[in-house]
Design goal:
The complex is a heterodimer of chains A (about 210) and B (about 700).
Chain A (H helix, E strand, L loop, with lengths): L18 H9 L1 H7 L2 H10 L1 H9 L2 E7 L2 E7 L5 H8 L18 E4 L2 E4 L12 E3 L12 H9 L8 H13 L6 H7 L10 H14 L4
Parallel strand pairs in A: 1-5
Antiparallel strand pairs in A: 1-2, 3-4, 3-5
Helix pairs in contact in A: 6-9
Chain B lengths: L19 H6 L14 E7 L5 E7 L1 H5 L3 E6 L7 H4 L16 E2 L5 E7 L2 H8 L3 E6 L21 E4 L10 E9 L11 E8 L2 E6 L4 H12 L6 E4 L15 H13 L3 E4 L2 H4 L9 E9 L5 E12 L12 H4 L5 E10 L13 H19 L3 H7 L17 H12 L12 E2 L2 E13 L5 E8 L4 E4 L9 H13 L6 E4 L16 H24 L8 H7 L4 E8 L4 H4 L3 E12 L6 E11 L6 H20 L5 E2 L4 E2 L18 E5 L23 H13 L15
Parallel strand pairs in B: 1-12, 10-11, 14-15, 19-20, 23-26
Antiparallel strand pairs in B: 1-5, 2-4, 2-6, 3-5, 7-15, 8-13, 9-10, 9-12, 13-14, 16-17, 17-22, 18-19, 18-21, 22-23, 24-25
Helix pairs in contact in B: 9-17, 12-13, 16-17
The chains are: A alpha+beta (about 210), B alpha+beta (about 700).
């Protein structure tokens, strides 16, 4: 998984250009130079070469560290961190619930802080350390919050659970878990449709009161 | 079987979920999360009109966009064999990319498939269509006169239908419930891969792998054994995965066209239009009683919305036939066809809507009679099924009333609305009952004892969240006399022995009974080997002695003659205390207590969570959930989780879940009945009744938003 240049696209799949793409290419510096030599450009268009050139330039290199593993990636600037984690790194523990930052299922830690990975482009976390649910346990030893969610049944279907747990850990780290009311308020960005909220609050209170390092 | 006596478990009581470790570590893979070789990505394009036809559709730009492999519309869609055989005018599920007709806003008109999700999403924005729009009808209350009964049994009468009108104390009221959307946290998702021309594997969000297998086989006219459906983890569904939806067929068609696997995840907006919802419903109740609170008659009419292509009726009024001993009852369930997507079963379908009206009316009647609402219910307590006259298989609703009343402190309730204030907030108490039929469906379980002492249970059920595996392992552990850690439960795979859909609160009763019987059969097989019937078998030792790698049974089970003898239901009672701000109209829940009378409790931890979860969805129904259509355009305008409000953590206090926990051995050998539906059913009325007790304002139009209270 480490240092993997992952993308399931291949050169032969790049198809002929569309109007919007052509407009973009005309505006780009590289293509302005090429445009000064019209004949090759026409040939390039016929061969689909300009699209191939664009395919190279529409990706950017990205170095990130996910769960302690360094990755050198090549990503489209428009790819969200969520889709990058799930589709390129096969870290599917981070969940897609709404793609609009409205449900919290995609919550991960970036340099220790909770964020919605669906509202974060991959390129925005260049050089940063990402922790997903897969990176929370230490080997076989579950994080205290994972243990508490198990003990208090802080979930049913389990789909919002990774986001809830990442948020819950951050909630304590931020100092926002000092009362049941405060926990409920600061956990309200993570929707649980199965309705495990009281159990989630119980789990967070147990970890908070247990005084373990989170 | 020994009956456990846990009536009021805490969140830490009971067996932890057997799949919990996978769920808290991110190891649980849901349908869109399988790393299938050669995967491509599909994105749907929805119609921008609400009713009419597609004049032309331009896919050239999309098809030419980078990475795009195919753009499928009705113009180039390969023939789907199952779409061709039915009569063209027949109503039924929407046939995707079948013709140029548009029947609701957002109806899929194209599928764009590309080699990355980003490329498919971008290319989908390049598809343009020209339409010929026709007048659309999307507003239920403007079209009530067009209501019709889709089935003969939608009309019911006993005694003198209008008897309530002659009663000394009576009332007649109308109730309105908006469309509510399941909004499971996992959007609908499928990966479809053709393994041969007539052989397919799907990883699909479904509540029934066998039903999905059959549906795909029928639609594509391929042998059923050539369809493999995997649904190991389902991220909630609440009814929205009880049928195979058009987008699932779209992905299957797409995979055939591009000759590669296609992954299709619905957008949250699509979840509001294309995979069902609880239908917007108008109801009217007439109810009358004697001055001492004996019901004379009930009339209950319901009209719900459905789509232009499918007649979906959930039967909300039927609850008025069942809940009380009332001699004169008439009920009617009708529907209106509108230019909207089809509704579908949503948690507590029928009674969830029906009890909001009936239990609100009973509460209103209690004030008119000056009789305590629980006392009024007890004066009309049904000792036998009012509809069939049969004895109940088991009913302890009276105990549930008492348990809940004691727990919530019902004696502190003031019978005078708007009379109690605390810290500037009005305080109100409310309660409501709930009921749902208790069924037992055919189910088959294969139980295998392995040489190492591991018991493997296998059946083609899926688990949308309640904890089916955990309950099944609990039953097997008790029956076989082995620890839960030595039992594996395999499910979510259509190649396993058949089990019903996870819907209608049937799984514990159906599959749980099959597990119990299969374990008994397996134990008996061991006894036959040893000739010893009395003692707990040493499974490992016996297998070793007989030189066996394993011992296996497959047991089919189903309901018997008891279904003709008894009326079978699960019951619930919800109690709430609300605080209402007199200036802003904000409603806060102070206390919530839910009591279930659903037979024996198999798994206290997951049962408690299921009750609490249903109660919370019921609170959403009461206070905030409403899918809004802008009728000028026929489009859902709040199709996202910021504008369609579901309860969040800050809305929900601690909730007490109590269980009568008396086994009902008349329905099945394990004595357990379903509780997924009753967890929600009645909650909306309980909240509305508490709001009335707090404020003196009777809200009959859900949700009870602050504007309705100021």
């Amino acid at each position: 998984m480490a240092s993997k240049n992952s993308s399931n696209e291949s050169e032969k799949d790049v198809k002929i250009l569309d109007g919007t793409r052509r407009d973009f290419l005309k505006q780009s510096t590289l293509l302005t130079a090429i445009a000064l030599t019209p004949a090759p450009l026409v040939r390039a268009a016929e061969n689909g070469w300009d699209e191939k050139i664009a395919a190279v330039y529409e990706k950017v290199p990205l170095n990130i560290e996910v769960n302690g593993v360094k990755h050198q990636l090549s990503v489209e600037p428009r790819a969200t961190l969520l889709d990058l984690l799930r589709e390129q790194l096969d870290l599917t523990g981070t969940k897609k619930g709404c793609d609009h930052g409205q449900c919290g299922a995609c919550t991960v830690h970036v340099d220790g802080h909770r964020i919605n990975s669906c509202l974060t482009l991959g390129v925005m976390v260049s050089g940063k350390k990402i922790t997903t649910i897969e990176g929370l346990a230490k080997g076989d030893q579950l994080h205290p919050m994972q243990e508490a969610f198990l003990k208090h049944d802080g979930f049913q279907c389990g789909y919002c659970t990774p986001g809830q747990i990442m948020s819950a850990v951050a909630c304590i780290r931020e100092g926002h878990a000092n009362s049941e009311t405060e926990i409920r308020e600061y956990m309200s960005g993570n929707i649980c449709r199965c309705g495990a909220y009281p159990n989630i609050v119980n789990a967070i209170q147990e970890v908070k009161d247990g005084g373990q390092t989170v | 079987m020994e009956s456990k006596t846990l009536n009021k478990p805490s969140s830490s009581d009971g067996l932890k979920r057997i799949d919990g470790h996978l769920k808290v570590t991110g190891g649980a893979r849901y349908s869109a999360e399988f790393n299938v070789a050669g995967l491509t990505y599909g994105v749907l394009v929805g119609s921008t009109i609400t009713h009419g036809t597609i004049k032309s559709i331009d896919t050239r730009k999309a098809a030419a966009a980078p990475g795009v492999l195919a753009v499928i519309t009705h113009l180039n869609c390969p023939k789907v064999p199952g779409y061709q055989t039915t009569t063209p005018s027949a109503k039924g599920p929407l046939k995707i990319f079948f013709d140029n007709k548009i029947l609701y806003n957002g109806q899929p008109v194209a599928l764009v498939i590309a080699n990355t999700f980003e490329r498919a999403l971008y290319a989908s924005s390049l598809v343009t269509a020209l339409y010929s729009a026709e007048k659309h009808h999307t507003k239920l209350t403007d079209n009530l006169s067009k209501a019709f009964s889709p089935h003969d049994d939608n009309e019911y009468k006993r005694g003198v239908p209008d008897a309530w009108k002659a009663a000394p104390v009576k009332l007649e009221q109308e109730y309105l419930l908006p469309s509510e959307v399941h909004n499971s946290m996992e959007p609908h998702a499928i990966i479809a891969r053709w393994d041969a021309d007539d052989k397919i594997t799907v990883w699909d969000k479904t509540q029934g792998v066998k039903d999905t297998q059959n549906s795909i086989a029928q639609t594509f006219k391929i042998p059923v054994e050539n369809v493999q459906v995997n649904s190991k983890f389902v991220g909630g569904a609440f009814g929205n995965a009880l049928q195979v939806w058009p987008h699932e067929f779209a992905a299957i068609i797409g995979a055939k066209v591009v000759k590669r696997p296609v992954k299709l995840i619905l957008s949250r907006a699509d979840m509001f239009t294309s995979v069902g919802y609880r239908p917007h419903t108008w109801q009217k109740i007439g109810i009358g009683a004697t001055v001492d609170g004996k019901l004379v008659g009930i009339s209950h009419q319901a009209v719900g919305q459905t789509s232009a292509y499918e007649d979906f009726a959930e039967g909300p009024a039927d609850v008025s036939r069942q809940l009380y001993a009332c001699p004169n009852v008439s009920t009617s369930n009708k529907i209106v066809s509108l230019n909207v997507g089809s509704p579908v079963w949503m948690r507590g379908p029928g009674p969830a809507t029906g009890t909001f009206a009936l239990e609100s009316a009973i509460d209103e009647l209690s004030y008119a009679l000056k009789i305590d609402p629980i006392e009024l219910r007890m004066r009309n307590y049904a000792e036998t099924d009012p509809e069939s006259g049969k004895p109940f298989s088991g009913k302890f609703l009276n105990e549930a009333y008492k348990l809940g009343a004691d727990n919530i402190g019902w004696s502190n309730r003031s019978p005078k609305p708007g009379s109690v204030k605390k810290d500037g907030w009005l305080v109100g108490y409310g309660m409501s009952g709930g009921v749902f039929g208790a069924d037992r469906e055919p189910a088959t379980v294969r139980a295998t004892m392995m040489a190492d002492g591991m018991l493997v249970l296998q059946t083609a059920v899926s688990d949308i969240g309640p904890g089916t595996g955990t309950a099944m392992v609990s039953i097997a552990s008790e029956t076989m006399g082995i620890p839960t850690g030595k039992i594996r439960f395999d499910m979510g795979d259509s190649s396993l022995p058949p089990a019903p859909q996870q819907g209608g609160s049937t799984i514990t009763s159906s599959v749980g009974s099959a597990v119990y019987l299969a374990c008994n059969d397996l134990k008996e097989k061991f006894h036959q080997l040893t000739g010893d019937n009395g003692n707990q078998p040493d499974y490992i030792q016996i297998l070793k002695q007989h030189n066996l790698q394993k011992l296996e049974v497959t047991t089919a089970s189903k309901a018997g003659a008891e279904v003709d003898k008894y009326a079978m239901y699960s019951w619930s009672v919800h109690f709430v205390v609300v605080h209402v701000n007199p200036a802003t109209g904000v409603v806060k829940l102070d206390k919530v207590t839910c009591v279930a009378d659903s037979g024996r409790i198999i798994s206290p931890k997951t049962a408690r969570s299921q009750i609490i979860g249903g109660a919370i969805m019921g609170i959403g129904m009461a206070l905030m959930e409403e899918a809004v259509i802008d009728h000028r355009y026929g489009r859902v305008v709040n199709g996202n989780l910021a504008d369609y409000h579901v309860p969040v953590n800050a809305d929900i206090p601690q909730i007490e879940a109590l269980f009568v926990n008396k086994p009902d051995f008349n329905i099945n050998p394990i004595g357990a009945k379903g509780m997924g539906e009753i967890a929600l059913i009645g909650m909306a009325a309980a909240v509305a009744n508490a709001v009335y007790n707090a404020t003196g304002k009777r809200v009959r139009n859900l949700p009870i938003t602050p504007d309705k209270l100021v």
